[in-house]
Amino acid sequence: MKSASPQPYLKIGDVARIVGVSPSVIRSWESLGLTRPQRTASKYRLNAPAIVQLLKRDGLVAAHSASGSAALGGRLRQLRTKRGVSLARVAHAVGISVGFLSAIERSHMSASVATLRKLARFYKTNILEFFDASHSSSPLVPPARRKVLDAGQGVRMELLAWGNTVMEPHLFRIAPQAGSGESYTHEGEEFLYILRGKLHIALQEKKFQLKSGDSFYFQSSTPHHWKNPGRSETLVLWINTPPTF
Questions:
Q1: Which fold has domain 66-127?
Q2: Which residues, listed in sequence order, are joined to residue 92 by a DSSP beta bridge?
Q3: How far is 143 from 159, CA to CA, in rounded Å?
């Protein structure tokens, strides 16, 4: 009888990125006995999905919607298998562990905006591929018909129009303390309008603090990352052009 396939390995940095805390916080949880992940000799955490599920069970991290993640995982797996590349090759190219990528493809975890951008660049595609926005939308898109993508813990992207467009408009819903992850770049230009809440955004070394009613414009080729520093959800009208992410 065949033994069950081993669960994917995850580094502490991957766990911290998924949960949205620093590696030192993960270590402190372990020292307090809140989490008890096994380790290999190379200090990888074992059974990545179980670690995150344990944190959710204990209320240390909020559960996210599975529907968007499930669709994304299937598309990422399809993109990889169509190109005939291994998990290891893709993971190395985007700077994440094989276990983390495997968990994303199996819909056990969601990827940050920065990781999604790197995956899109590796596959020579854009973020619209992850939304399955292959068909044109009508001029009117009611809220119930928006295409939705979970982009890491606490970040929800709602696509407002798709098809043969020169702009890529989104509504970003960003939970308190959630953000993009590490800095990222891509081609194009970006326009933001803060509908509600606060957003801290950094362009290289320059930091900006945005609040409700503020607008912001920048070149996407500038390394940037962002985060909701507040205690309530931030809503942002976010437009990229061209739609390459």
A1: 434 Repressor (Amino-terminal Domain) (1.10.260)
A2: none
A3: 10
pLDDT tens for the 245 residues of the chain, in order? 444 445 555 666 666 665 555 566 566 556 655 555 555 555 545 445 555 555 544 444 444 444 455 578 888 998 999 999 999 999 999 988 888 898 889 887 778 888 888 898 899 887 777 876 656 667 899 998 888 888 888 999 999 988 778 888 999 999 999 999 888 888 889 999 999 999 999 999 899 999 999 999 999 999 999 999 999 999 999 999 876 54
CB contact set of 158 (below 8 Å; sequence gap of 6+): 146, 147, 148, 170, 171, 172, 173
Architecture category of domain 135-241 in CATH: Sandwich (2.60)
pTM reported for the whole predicted model: 0.67
Strands 215-219 and 155-159: unpaired
As given in the structure block, the two tokens for residue 99 are 């276990």
Q: Where in the chain is the domain with CATH 1.10.260.40?
A: 66-127
Locate CATH 2.60.120.10 in the chain: 135-241
Q: Which positions ≥6 away from 118 have C-beta within 8 Å?
A: 93, 94, 95, 184
E strand spans, 127-241: 147-150, 155-159, 168-174, 189-196, 198-203, 206-211, 215-219, 224-227, 234-241
3-state secondary structure of 74: helix
